[in-house]
Amino acid sequence: MHTNTKRLTRLSLLTSVALIIFIVEAQLPSLTTVPGVKMGLSNIVTLTALYLYRPLDALSVLIIRIVLGSIFSGQMTTLFFSLGGGLVCFAVCVLLRRLFPLRRFWQLSMIGAVFHNLGQIAVAILVTSTPEILWYLPVLLLSGLISGCFTGLCAQYLLQHLCKLEKNPTNQNRW
């Protein structure tokens, strides 16, 4: 298969998986009574794309997942919050990714999750003109650290196994 076709096929697959995870997670009851706190499991796929592909490729996975996920889950009101947080997180992760080898990838995810929450708070303040929303920030930062650690460890585990698949010469179904 041609390299560009293979890359496009894999990115499409990653986007589809991220979208499915996003929609399923949107339908699940919240793990906490704190509004707006969720695990962000679809970020496992975005982190994987960021590690395996160019930043622009991973950005396309992120944006398509957020836009289609908001439409398909019926949560259009969260589109700007998700985009704001996602883009800030993405920018920080792209800037810092070379500092975090695969064995420490979970740490990059935690940093990204914190910046995702900062982006969401900034959007919320802009939309509502209510700077008092900043009081909510400590709760979001704590939840971001926890979810960022979990999603980062999941992405790191997935990437380690994808790398093993790629290195195994007897494996006919390589990633």
Report what the structure shows.
The chain has about 180 residues and is mainly α. It has helices at about 5-25, 45-50, 55-70, 80-95, 105-130, 135-165. Helix 1 runs parallel beside helix 3. It is about 70% helix and about 0% strand. The mean pLDDT is about 90. It starts with a helix and ends in an 8-residue tail after the last helix.
Please name the defining characteristics of this protein.
single chain; 175 residues; mainly alpha; 72% helix; 0% strand
Mean pLDDT: 90
CA-based gyration radius: 17 Å
SSE string, helices as H and strands as E:
HHHHHH
How much helicity do the residues have? over 70%
In terms of DSSP E residues, the strand content is under 5%
Secondary structure tally: strands: 0
Instruction: Describe the sheet with the most strands.
Output: none
Number of helices: 6
Instruction: Quickly give the structural class.
Output: mainly alpha
Q: Termini separation (Å)?
A: 13 Å
| Regions with little confidence, pLDDT below 50 for 5+ residues | none
Overall shape: globular
Strand and helix map with partners:
Elements: H1 3-27, H2 43-52, H3 55-72, H4 79-96, H5 105-128, H6 137-167
Could you provide a short overview of the structure?
The chain has 175 residues and is mainly alpha-helical. Helix content is 72%, strand content 0%.
